[in-house]
Amino acid sequence: MKNLLLIRNMLCVSMFFCLWGIAVNAQNIPLVYSVENSGVSYPAPSLPPANESPSVVLLPNPFEWSDGHGVINTLEDWPCRRNEIKLEIEKYEIGFRPARPTSITAALTRDSVYTIQEPNWLNIDQSDPKWRLNANNFIPVEHKDHFLLVTIVENGKTLTLSSTINIPDGAGPFPAVIGVSGATGSLPASLFANCIQINYNPSQVGIDGKPNTGAFYDLYGIQGGHYAAWSWGASRIIDGLELIQSQINIDLAHIAITGCSRYGKLALFGGAFDERIALTIAQEPGGGGAAAWRVSEAIGKVEKIDNTDYSWFLPSMKDNFAGKTDRLPHDHHELIAMIAPRAVLILGNATIEWLADPSGYVSAMAAREVWKKFGVEDRIGFDFMGDHNHCNAPASQVDAADKFIKRFLYGETTDTNILTSPFQDVNYQSWIKDWRITPASFVGNN
């Protein structure tokens, strides 16, 4: 066993320097990566059958190796550990998520130009119920719709993703945002005015509400949850952007993903599973998103393992872990932590009980320990304030998103130390009190 552990650690160190290509010091904690999964070639852990997994009542330690033999000590350990978390989530929760296909092509088509009136969110008083009746609250926004066509061939079958893509005027290079079910998700388009905006329609991959149904399942002939299929589709969009980079002058080092509600969950899975995404903004992701299954089990009428949508997740997750979340080898603070050391902003709505935002708060604070170990805790933020409509970000959340976008997409200097919630009395530390965390051995100031 000791020899196997030594081999694992040596491989982690050597492959870290090969993939990241940097010397570790205080100034270069990466903001993004050029590959989908920097841990893809690391040794896979031996994961137990669900009925043999040990009981862990509190939140599992994201720093602890899957085999229980110690915790990570250095930055170069993280890609290995992150890959272990990925494999746990696939095995126990969403199913297998294939890597980039060998046969994939992309094309850009050019179509219409049109102008529509959109809310000027930065100047709107949303406490006024009649704000939509005031024409001064709207501004004309020109859209230049092109289409990104990504074609994948696997097993003799073809899947084509068609996404509208809006390209700003100017020379670029332009950052980009992948909006799920909307060019900028449910966030104001004005926040991303200087970005290439890609409208990703996940129903082209898997049909919501229908398990194992859609083009992804036809392509691979496998069964799984839509969060494996849908996040896979988001990664294929990025593949397509790479293939047409010269045509649209995109800045591939500054890509964001955002969505709300079920698509807020998708934004989290997309950002967690693809390290080419520099900024993840998950809006009201609720249970199965930012909220930790264990914590949600204890707080009331919220989305839990026993009542979530099982077109999204493996049915075996309910069979194995409903009513016994302590047997789940991971939890969703680790899904969030997979994004580290890249940037993530979680937007909630504490008024809506179903979203389990107290659980989301505990989960986000627990995940933040990973960014703290990197010394870059200002790359994870949240705003869980309520009293607004579902998927309608209030002014404080628009401001938080604006700051994260300016810093992590546009490279501006803004303060992203944003931890806003009504949960000051929630003791998140009681959920992580058993963690073994080694002293930080690397600190970043990016």
From TrEMBL:
<dbReference type="Pfam" id="PF22244">
    <property type="entry name" value="GCE_fung"/>
</dbReference>
<protein>
    <recommendedName>
        <fullName>4-O-methyl-glucuronoyl methylesterase-like domain-containing protein</fullName>
    </recommendedName>
</protein>
<feature type="domain" description="4-O-methyl-glucuronoyl methylesterase-like">
    <location>
        <begin position="150"/>
        <end position="375"/>
    </location>
</feature>
<dbReference type="GO" id="GO:0052689">
    <property type="term" value="F:carboxylic ester hydrolase activity"/>
</dbReference>
<keyword id="KW-0732">Signal</keyword>
<dbReference type="InterPro" id="IPR029058">
    <property type="entry name" value="AB_hydrolase_fold"/>
</dbReference>
<keyword id="KW-0719">Serine esterase</keyword>
<dbReference type="InterPro" id="IPR054579">
    <property type="entry name" value="GCE-like_dom"/>
</dbReference>
<keyword id="KW-0378">Hydrolase</keyword>
